[in-house]
Specification:
This protein is of the alpha/beta class and 231 residues long. It is built from eight helices and eleven strands.
Length: 231
């Protein structure tokens, strides 16, 4: 499918990179922006720009209703979420499909399976894939998280279950840092993804971040893009 117009549901450098690629492909672009980004570069670079709302991301870049309305208003064929914000939100991908707008990203089913890090850990365990020691239980109280940190052994990495991009992550070196780190991670996760749930993992110091990236399309074509060191 060739899109005529794509709305980029993101901001700043992320949005600009998508827009530049669209421009080289002859695809028109739509920017969205909040009060914080009225004069941002991505709003000027796009062919069109639509105001979403207040600077608070819940009222703008996480506001599914407003973003879909902007896509319909500008007659965009597709929405590219960039990364962060709604890029891993299965509900949003489903809402796009229901509105007849293509979501450039994984299917809602794939996101529900792997979008939350907690679910991803459970799938890995079920498949027999080794994972680092951690905790991803439903009890999210500070007391339980502290106890689990002690069981795992410091240093421990706190992660936001939803989303990515490094948001909601804190390294905890000892028990004295636990409560402050938990609350900070919760606040950032809630602000960035609208979901304050956390998981814990043993922090691997001096680690390398190596990925095997898999690319697939809606027609069932799959290929791997070899190893990538993202450290």
């Amino acid at each position: 499918m060739h899109f005529q117009k794509v709305l980029i549901a993101n901001r700043g450098e992320i949005a600009l990179r998508v827009m530049r690629t669209c421009r080289t492909m002859g695809i028109a672009t739509v920017a969205v922006y909040s009060d914080a980004d009225v004069n941002a570069a991505h709003t000027r670079f796009a062919d069109e720009a639509v105001y979403l709302g207040a600077a608070n991301v819940k009222e703008s870049y996480l506001n599914m209703k407003c973003i879909l309305a902007a896509a319909q208003q500008t007659q965009a064929d597709a929405i590219h979420p960039g990364y962060g914000f709604l890029s891993e939100n299965a509900e949003f991908a489903e809402a796009c499909a229901n509105a007849g707008i293509a979501f450039i990203g994984p299917s809602p089913q794939a996101m529900r399976a792997m979008g939350l890090k907690i679910a991803g850990r459970e799938i890995a365990v079920a498949a027999g894939v080794p994972i680092v020691p951690g905790y991803n239980g439903e009890d999210q109280s500070n007391a339980t998280l502290r106890d689990q940190m002690l069981a795992i052994g410091f240093p421990v990495l706190i992660k936001a279950s939803a989303g990515g991009g490094g948001k909601g992550m804190r390294v905890v070196q000892d028990e004295n840092e636990a409560d402050e780190a938990i609350e900070a991670a919760r606040r950032e996760a809630e602000k960035s993804f609208g979901d304050s749930s956390l998981l814990l993992e043993k922090y691997i110091e001096h680690a390398r971040h190596v990925e095997i990236q898999i690319l697939g399309d809606t027609h069932g074509n799959l290929l791997h893009l070899f190893e990538r060191d993202c450290s």
